[in-house]
């Protein structure tokens, strides 16, 4: 690219009998053409990268999708042993009013036996052990585990059972057996009233 | 190739006028008229042309379906039902498209196994083969996204499970999945982009098919003996010998296809996909379309952590590796003999692999905890998952261990000296000029 002899081709000027226009050559052999080439390439690269990023980011969630980020739920009608499902960010959230037996079995679990060790106390909010709130999406490949409706299989640990590939969750929503790697995540939430929570 | 007779001058002045300005007729004449085909190519050599026709069928029916289809979560299912019930011949176009995907895969899978049997991936056809693998990957992506469009239960949960695979990628997995979805769950944004890409990718396939055929026309076709044509006595011009053979095979194939379209259009589908998508209810048993079953079985076979790789990631790696390993096949197979016809040991292992893939397909259709069963026979002592693990192991064993070793230890049978020697009746053999008679007649015409 740097050799100026290239310019000695059959250019118009030459055909008219003039000497080939010599590009001004700097001491190190670089020409004005090299400079143009480099600046054009650099500008082009920045443009392509910027535009490419815009295309990629356009596929991310849009502002209105991000805006639907909180949900308030009234818990007053949910008796011990019952569960409800609410939608939050397009995902189901399982809210279970746990019985004493369920709380005890969740607290009694030996952490060494858990694929994703986490004490039950770290999975409840404000000391309200009777309420368990988890995102109801199997951490394996995203199916909705069974166990919310009466008559559903709740798996071998009394929590939820994912029919897709057989993951068993306990009464704290922790993975106990099966291919799922992680516990059902606890979404960020708080009690705004005694029996009212805001998720998100 | 050198011995192809020069294309005859075109008689029609209009054709001549165009051809001298844009030599499309010369091109067609060269690539599809006088193009020398090995004279012994059998009916397995039909499936490339058949696949090409299927691609065209998919594009034409797809374009017309798109005129009535609505890519929105609230309307997609109903718009497909409307196509089925109210749109003139909508039922026909949809069933042709739906079963077309299956028959496209049937054609391509036969085409691929043909290549495996006759060693069509070996030098000098490595790039040709690799372009074929690219086409397979693109087809898989296209079919997967197409299956999402009717927005039934299987559409929804299939895309949920498969996109969630990417959450297995360390560190960035969850962001990647959110990015794929365009939201926090599979939703309208997801359906829209899948429709856009489902429309686009088939045209990308057309582009790669073009390169595939271009590469083919550099090396020429392989043939059942796997040896190279040595002269004009080994080949026949593509037209009319193979145009007629391809057409005949194509019609038989299309008739079987029509049998399904008209008499069993939902045979290969899953009834749950006639239930509208319900984001809160996962069907008890999610299965992909049949053509993905072997890969799905390999995905599910990895139920254990391997070193620092979690089971979920391991399954994903194994599933993708099962296709990507085909890219390496030309170098994994160390035998210099192409055709299994002359490879007494490989021939058996080819069939073992074939059966292995069929079993994997069956495993993919069963629930993970089911006992294994096939052809209605239950093998209660072994679970589907265990069978899947054994077959997955064997699949990789075939490519990574058997093929490299076989080339070193197998003694091939003696190869025929030339193609025509291998196909002509005994008395006519001898490599010299062809004797008169039935077998030689075609040359006279060429
Ligand atoms: C490589 C070629 C193609 C393959 C393998 C393919 C595959 C599929 C599959 C499996 C379905 C689901 C069918 C069902 O269960 O209802 C589908 C649906 C659809 N495809 Fe394609 N397709 C291809 C090309 C195209 C093209 C080129 C277009 C548009 C130009 C298109 C437009 C559609 C539309 C609108 C639907 C939804 C309607 C329906 O579900 O029948 N397809 N495709
Ligand atoms: S998605 Fe729940 S076990 Fe696979």
Pick out its properties.
heterodimer; A: 200 residues; alpha+beta; Rieske Iron-sulfur Protein; 2 domains; three-stranded antiparallel β-sheet; 4 helices; 9 strands; 22% helix; elongated; disordered N terminus; B: 446 residues; mainly alpha; Cytochrome Bc1 Complex, Chain C; two-stranded antiparallel ribbon; 16 helices; 4 strands; 4% strand; binds protoporphyrin IX containing FE; binds FE2/S2 (inorganic) cluster
Protein architecture, described:
The complex is a heterodimer of chains A (200) and B (446). Chain A has four helices and nine strands; from the N terminus they run αααβββαββββββ. Chain A is elongated and about 90 Å long. Chain A has 200 residues and is of the alpha+beta class. The longest helix of chain A has 27 residues, at 32-58. Mean pLDDT of chain A is 84; it is low at 1-16. Chain A folds into two domains: 22-60; 66-199, Rieske Iron-sulfur Protein (3-layer Sandwich), CATH 2.102.10. Chain B is mainly alpha-helical and 446 residues long. Chain B folds into two domains: 25-226 and 235-286, Cytochrome Bc1 Complex, Chain C, CATH 1.20.810.10; 287-409, no CATH class. Helix content of chain B is 60%, strand content 4%. Chain B contains 16 helices and four strands. In chain B, a hairpin with a 2-residue loop joins strand 3 and strand 4 (377-383). The longest helix of chain B is centred in the middle third of the chain and has 32 residues, at 188-219. Chain B is globular and about 65 Å long. The two termini of chain B are 15 Å apart. The model of chain B is unreliable at 429-446 (pLDDT under 50). Classes of the chains: A alpha+beta (200), B mainly alpha (446). The interface between A and B is medium-sized, with 27 and 34 residues. The complex binds protoporphyrin IX containing FE and FE2/S2 (inorganic) cluster (FES). FE2/S2 (inorganic) cluster binds next to loops of chain A. FE2/S2 (inorganic) cluster binds at residues 138, 140-143, 162, 164-167, 178-180 of chain A.
